[in-house]
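Aim 2 progress update. The chain analyzed this quarter is reproduced below.
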Amino acid sequence: MGDGRLHLAALDAVIAHKSAKAFGKKDRPVPLACGLVARRAAAPVLNVVREGDPSRSVEVGCVRRDGEWWYQVPDSGEWLSPVEEVERVPGVLVALLERGAR
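Predicted C-alpha cells:
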C-alpha cells in the first residue's frame, strides 16, 4: 500500500469517527460516509457522500505538492489540506458538498 493510499485510509477513519461522534446531535455537521475507490489506470480516491444524499459526492485524492502530501479534489484541482491536518478535512468536505459538488 502506497503512502497516498495510507493517507486516504487515515482520512476515511477520521470521517467515520467524526460522523459517528456527531450522529444524533441537533447541531451536528452534515454526516459523511466514504469509501476508497481503486482504479486500474489512476491513483485511488476516497469517494465522500452526504449520508442520506448519495447524489452529492466528491472524490478526494492524495498527491505530492512541493515534496509534501496533500489532499486534493482531482476533478477541480482544488487543494484541501496537507495530510498533517487531516482532522480539518471533513469540515472542508461538508462545505464542498453543501455548495453543490456533483
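The longest strand covers residues 53-65. The chain has two helices and five strands. These observations will guide the mutagenesis experiments scheduled for the next reporting period.
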